[in-house]
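Notes from the 1:1 (GR / supervisor)

We went over the backlog. Supervisor wanted to see one worked example end to end before approving the batch request, so GR pasted a single chain during the call. The sequence is below; no edits were made to it. Supervisor asked that the structure be written out right there so they could see what the output format looks like.
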Amino acid sequence: MGSTGRMVVGAFGLVALAIGFLAVVFLTAPAAPGPDLARAKTSLKGLYSIAIAPESGEPKQGDLHSWVVTVTTRQGAPVDNASFTIGGGMPEHAHGLPTSPEATSYLGDGRYRIEGMKFSMTGWWQLKFGITAPAGADEATFNLVL
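Structure output shown during the call:
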């Protein structure tokens, strides 16, 4: 075998070694983390603690359902007289919610009923709550996966 043949075989060997190395790196790398699915968190500015829960069972695709949002101060006192803006959508599909949910009643102890929620397809959804109450305006975003 001439020097050109040895160079070609050597080049193929280096390529095979590089492919093997990359395969090991990609196959053993940890999976990308999914969205944070916590249903309780501190609001963005830290004014409130907010928890969300479906009112009756986990929501299903296409069903109209209600949620209960609980808002407390950082010290744990219920927040009365809050008003909400509610938005969201599917970040991976760049579209909003198919309905216009709204807070319809105060249930006491910082709990508010949100009606008119609907998820039109399976996947990753975000719910964005803007809260205005005596302590000030703040917001929180929750991730859900159906």
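Supervisor's comment: The first strand starts at residue 40 and ends at 42.
Batch request approved.
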